[in-house]
């Protein structure tokens, strides 16, 4: 048993305001995308890594990732994250399990990858996430519509892992129905399938805005990483 990893890295990084794709930002001498790919390169259960990239960045990406032998394919991304993942899904060899992990999430721990992998062997769809620390309210413009029950909420992270056929079916169904979603599990939920939850950790951030870079530097410093 093993899995294939799909890494969407074809975003614009517009919320980062870096002027180019944020996955190329270097953190202590190593780009975000190299750090993310490195997680799967090191995971013995992962047999291949496939990325979605922006067409104009394909050459740069291939050069950056030349030191990672598990990278087996780099495909053109699409308009939305969901399209990028579908573009890769339809190109990869059929396998038992697929992990989908944001290119911009470089701190997923080996323990988390292992727990998600163990879970996907018995459950066909697995996500990970952490408990909400703040009180979350649903709003209607400038007015509170409802205060949600915190114990029923989960901050969702990646990796999300799936039975290959199930995630393919979920993406195809979403495309047919014109569903636009921000994570892959939502498409599986639409099929009425149950989705298992594994606990993630608060270091597994998605680097989205400038302040996330400060957090990222501090996570790296806390690990005492040598260059
Ligand atoms: N069309 C897209 C959009 C996003 N992504 C990838 O999906 C991951 C999560 O998306 P997000 O953090 O939103 O990245 P961006 O879309 O780059 O950021 P923004 O929304 O601020 O432009 C990132 O690794 C990003 O590269 C992708 O492959 N294809
Ligand atoms: O910020 P975006 O909506 O582009 O992407 C969000 C997704 O990456 C996100 O939903 C998963 O990482 C799970 O949280």
From TrEMBL:
Protein name from the UniProt record: 2-C-methyl-D-erythritol 4-phosphate cytidylyltransferase
HAMAP family linked to this entry: IspD (MF_00108)
Entry keyword Ligase: no
GO molecular function: 2-C-methyl-D-erythritol 4-phosphate cytidylyltransferase activity; D-ribitol-5-phosphate cytidylyltransferase activity
Pathway terms, separated by semicolons: Isoprenoid biosynthesis; isopentenyl diphosphate biosynthesis via DXP pathway; isopentenyl diphosphate from 1-deoxy-D-xylulose 5-phosphate: step 2/6; Cell wall biogenesis; poly(ribitol phosphate) teichoic acid biosynthesis
Catalyzed chemical reaction(s): 2-C-methyl-D-erythritol 4-phosphate + CTP + H(+) = 4-CDP-2-C-methyl-D-erythritol + diphosphate; D-ribitol 5-phosphate + CTP + H(+) = CDP-L-ribitol + diphosphate
Biological process, per Gene Ontology: cell wall organization; isopentenyl diphosphate biosynthetic process, methylerythritol 4-phosphate pathway; teichoic acid biosynthetic process
